[in-house]
Amino acid sequence: MRASIAIALTAATAVSAVCNSSYNVPTSGTCFTGCNVEAGNVFLPGWTMDPASDKFIPSLKLMCSKGTPQYTAFMSKAGMCMMKCSDPQELFNNEFAGACGWYAEHKDDVCTESKGDTPAEGAANKLEISGLAMALVAGAGYLAL
């Protein structure tokens, strides 16, 4: 029964997460991304280029906020690592420009359970998701009997 409830809650959580769905910037590849993640984790544990993560916006803030000491340190550390990458530098340049352009438009976005265009719509979505979670838990409990 506990396993059924855990599965149901995991499914409900997966259904309810809505984070940065408009981000569609092509990746620069594993080497450049790995360098960014390595450098980013020094300044922000959990630094990521995963738009589904709640740490995505703070990660882009570190990467895109020019003129700050953290930006300079991050770019220096990532850049030293990137010198070892064999992929064309243009891949990173394109991702950086796209990611920071997206960040400039979306830096105040919040990773939430649901997003609605109006407060009433957002509340309705939360109720719908809560209802789904309850139905999944109730169904899991029934099946466990």
User: What is the subunit arrangement here?
Assistant: single chain
* Helix share bin: 55-70%
Biggest beta sheet summary: none
Structural class: mainly alpha
Can you give a write-up of this model?
Residues 1-17 form the signal peptide. This is Secreted protein. Keywords: Signal. This protein is an all-alpha fold and 145 residues long. It folds into two domains: 1-18 and 112-145; 22-111, no CATH class. It is 66% helix and 0% strand. It has six helices and no strands. It has helices at 2-16, 30-43, 56-64, 69-82, 89-106, 119-144. Helix 1 (2-16) packs antiparallel against helix 6 (119-144) and helix 2 runs antiparallel to helix 4 (69-82).
Descriptive key words:
globular; mainly alpha; disordered C terminus; single chain; 145 residues; 2 domains
